[in-house]
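Batch job 17 of 40 flagged for manual review because the log was empty.
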Amino acid sequence: MARRLSTTTLVALAVAAGLLGSTASSTAADSEVACAVTIANGRMPRSGAGVNHGNGSLWVGLSRDGVTVPGHIGQDGSLLTKFPWYRGVRGRLRITGARLDAAAPAAVADVPRGYGDRGFQASGIAFPSEGCWRVTGAVGRARLTFVTLVAPPAPHPES
């Protein structure tokens, strides 16, 4: 399932959540570019691994509203977030990410070894910029794609 959120709606949600100051760019707020975010379908593997979007072969944990708020900013300015995956098929998980609403370098995924070749798999994704992103996880021929809006990172209180 996908839900289209306009930039105006997303900026308003981010302001309401305190993610952006009330002086957010009116240019961005006036834009009607939409991001057809994926809303989790609630499917989970039989083991109940706790993830909430899948297709019978792969599953991933997504936010309820399709918006990803990164937890950290990398040294290069990339926006870093974690995604839990569950593999119902054997093999190494590969993740790719492409921005849909503007030109940007590809997202870079970190899929650490040590989780075996089936079951739970932790991952981290470095998004080069905010925006609408399509992410695809693949193990062999199995694929799962979702679209997320990468929002500005949550502000950290000054020390």
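Reviewer: the log was empty due to a logging misconfiguration, but the result itself is present. The domain at 2-150 is CATH 2.60.40.10 (Immunoglobulin-like). Unflagging and moving on to job 18.
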